[in-house]
Each structure stands twice: as structure tokens, then as C-alpha cells.
Amino acid sequence: MPTLQFTLRVISPAFVAGATPYRIQDPDIQISIHSDALRIPSLKGVLRFWFRTLFAYRPPEFIKTYEERVFGSTQAGQGFRLRLIGVANARYGNVETTYRNQFKYLGYGPFGDRKAILPGATFRFVATGDPEQLTALKTTLRLLHLFGGIGARSRRGWGSLAVSESSEPILLPYTNRHSVKTWVETNLNSVFDQSIWAQIEDQLPLFSAFSPHHRIRITAPEPIDSDNQNYQKILKKFYDAFRAVRHYQGDSYGRIDHDQEYGDYENQEFSTIPFRMAFGFPFNVGSRTTDMGIRYVAHFNDKDIDRRASPLILKVLEGPDNNLYGLALFLKSHFFPQEAIITAQYRSYRGELPRYDRYSPMEGEAFFDSFDPERWAAVEEFLQHRILRE
Is pTM beyond 0.90 here? Predict the structure, then answer.
């Protein structure tokens, strides 16, 4: 049966961990690393996401059948098989950085509290399957290299991965006649047929996927350094762009939201959807110095929608020219189902230790209209930041 071997290298710290440590023999060091550091089910889950992004306007039945054919299911049988066959330079530990406050923003949750697989670690896999399955896997690995990562906060540049070696070509060749952004777009355009787009330019995908509406922006390069630390410069650039848009000081969408949220809290009336909600949901706001707090809730068909992953994906990209780049990918799609409504609740009580919050409903409700350019204004402002030059 045909096989495909490939190696994934960790470019920025990956916050993935499990419960059962085991020993990995490394040429230089013996370390203890959790067994699901890059475990097969987690990697397959990431690959499934990127596989689906290719089918924005396909019927759900087509996507389901094709995905089951490639990845397997109880109905379709086994998909391609994947085995980990080698690990090198793996280090599992705390992230050391001079950008601690900035990284805590990008890595809200795991950063500072969890250990990570540190940059430079490589994991070698072998995949076995039929030609159709392995062709789909190669396509998906191309997207993973260009745009993807693994672990917590991977949409904010953490856990970025690169396909460093493979038994068959994964990426198209690069020549100095083209920019790296052109190389990225050429690789992307080679994996799916865009002819259908001409007929549906006025339609948004129902889920995060490539379409006529996606956007790609890229930073200036940073040379890949010997100690695998230049990823920090890329993440710092992402932080600078976020701060310019989201911080409540100065002339920013963050300030506009801040003033509106305080007014809503005082009036106990939900007046408008914050611009910053477009970066992901749930979106809750609160004050560190007062009791002010608002929780936003989405509802659809008598069900609460408690999550909408960010349509803005940030990646530390290993370019073909031995440089690192910051890549921002905006997969514009319907943020919520068109019939979903958003309501708000205000914090009406804060107890002493241990902290206890009680939220009470506000008056008013709204729709997140995905066709309204104003709803995406904060994301567009981020994409126009000076660090993203192409």
C-alpha cells in the first residue's frame, strides 16, 4: 500500500499536553514529554479542519462523504493510517521571553501557566493509505504548513508548524522572482478549483473556509536564528497590531467599544454589538476597578451558541527563503447563523473571595449581520496595520 513520510517542525511554542508522560530518546538529551504532545488524534483533528476549508460552497453531504473517505468513520471504514516514527530535538518546558506581557495577551489562558513543546522539535510520521487518501493528505499538509498550527491558542500564532521534510513534494518550488506572499497564494490556488467562485461572489461561506472573501496579509521577514527564538519577534508584531485596534486608550475600535459598553452597563440596555466581537466568541468584558461587567449571549433555535472560533488566523510561517514571516489569514464567513440573535447581561453582584458573579438580562437584542462591513471593521483595521505590508 502506498505510503507518505513527512516531518513536522515546531516553529513557535505549542501548548499541548496530556496526562501520561513517557521517555523519548534524543541524540543529545533524554526528556520526559507527554504522550499526546503531537498525538495522532489531535493532528488528525487539525488536518480535518484544513481539509474542510477547501469546500466552502459544496453541499454538506459531499463534504461529509469525502471527509469520511479520507479520514475514516464507522460508516466508511478506515481512512489513511498515521504513525509517529521519530522525534528529535524535543524539549518540553516553560516559555522564556522578554515579551511576557505581550505574549500573555496572545496566549491568554495557557501562557505562563502551562509548559509547551519548544521550537525546534521535530516529529516524523508515516501515513499509509490508497492514492486518493494520500493525495488529499498532501493537499492538507500544504495548508497546514502555510496557515496552521496545533494546540491551545494556535489561531494566535502559538503552536505554528512547518512541514520540514517529506518523501514526496508537499510545497511548490519557490524562486526569488516572486514575493513570499505570491508563493503562498500560488500554493493555495493549486489545491482547489476557483472557477465556481465567479458565480457566487455575493455569498459568504457558512463556515470558516477559503472563498472570494478570504484575505491574506504578511509581515516583513525575520531571519531564522540558530536557537529558534525569532518567532518572538513575529508574535510581538501581532501584539502591536492587536493593541492598535483593541486597546481602550487612544483612537481605536477598542475605545469605541469601551465607551459604548460603559454606557450600556449604566443604562442596563444593550445598544449595539461591539466591534471586537468579530475577533471571536464568547466575548465578555469587565472592569478590574469597578463592578462593571457584560456577558454577551447568542441564541439560535432555542439553543445557546457559546463559541465561534476567530475567523482571523495568525501564523508564524517558515518561508522558503530561510526566513520567518507573520501571516494573517482572514476566513470571512457567516459569524453566526443569520437567524441567530445576540443578547447581553450585566453583572449585578460581585461577592468577596471566592469571587462570585451574578448576571442579569439587559434590555435589547441584535443580529450579527455578516454582510455588514461595519461588523468586520475592527478585523479590517487589524489587516491594514503597518506590520502587515502585503
Answer: yes
